[in-house]
Every structure is written in structure tokens, then in C-alpha cells.
Design goal:
By secondary structure, this protein is an alpha/beta fold. It has helices at about 15-25, 80-85; strands spanning about 5-10, 30-35, 45-50, 50-60, 70-75, 90-95, 100-105, 115-120. It has 2 domains: about 1-60, 2,3-Dihydroxybiphenyl 1,2-Dioxygenase, domain 1 (Roll); about 65-120, 2,3-Dihydroxybiphenyl 1,2-Dioxygenase, domain 1. The longest helix has 11 residues, at about 15-25. The protein is globular and about 45 Å long. The N and C termini lie far apart (about 35 Å).
Length: about 120
């Protein structure tokens, strides 16, 4: 039986870890966590998001703009993130509405689709 979600992985181009950490750790404020020693030579970095992890791996020859695949971060103040991202020049993409949620989308510097979603109070 599946009991939960441990981590998700996204990829960025090889050699772009510094730019990735700047975006994910500094702009989005996600804390980096230590990768196991056995995996450090593979590049990339890991992030802690609540109780789960996001593994940022490296991969070449991927058209990240051609996919709907994405990660959605649950937030408690979407308007804050809308302001912060706009101030940093991140192009926001309005999402198709879904009941009981407000959300927005954008692409990270590498083309990965990212969503921020906030549950509306009833």
C-alpha cells in the first residue's frame, strides 16, 4: 500500500546549480538539505518543503517548456507570492480556476512549470 509522498524530482541543465539555488533557495525561500554522500557526485541539490522533499537533478536535452508536468506548492498567502514574483520579473501565468482554490503558475529559469495554490476559506 502507498502511504505517502516522500519526494518529487525536477531537473535543471547540468552546471546550473548556482542559478537553481538562487531561484529556489533565495527567491522562493526553500531550505536546501544535505544530499547523501553517495549521490553528491551526480550534481543537483535537494530541498525541504514541509515534510516532503524536492530533488533538483541535472539533465540535458530536455524541452521543459513543452510539458504540462509541474510541481504545486501550497501557500497561505497567494497575493504575497504574486507580488514577490512580479517584483523579481517572473512572468506569471493565470491558471484555469478550480473550485475552492486560488492559484497561479510560472516557469522557473529553466522552463519547469511551477504552480502556487492556496485553499480558499469557506
Amino acid at each position: 500500500m502507498i502511504i505517502g509522498l516522500h519526494h518529487v524530482q525536477i531537473t535543471i541543465p547540468k552546471g546550473s546549480e548556482k542559478e537553481g539555488k538562487n531561484f529556489y533557495c533565495h527567491l522562493l525561500g526553500l531550505p536546501e538539505i544535505e544530499k547523501p554522500k553517495s549521490l553528491k557526485g551526480r550534481g543537483g541539490f535537494w530541498l525541504q518543503v514541509g515534510k516532503e522533499q524536492v530533488h533538483v537533478g541535472t539533465e540535458e536535452n530536455v524541452d521543459r517548456l513543452a510539458t504540462k508536468a509541474h510541481i504545486a506548492y501550497q501557500v497561505d498567502d497567494l497575493s504575497h507570492w504574486r507580488r514577490v514574483l512580479a517584483e523579481k520579473g517572473v512572468r506569471l501565468i493565470e491558471s484555469v480556476p478550480i473550485p475552492n482554490y486560488e492559484r497561479l503558475e510560472f516557469r522557473d529559469p529553466f522552463g519547469n512549470r511551477v504552480e502556487m495554490i492556496q485553499q480558499l476559506t469557506t
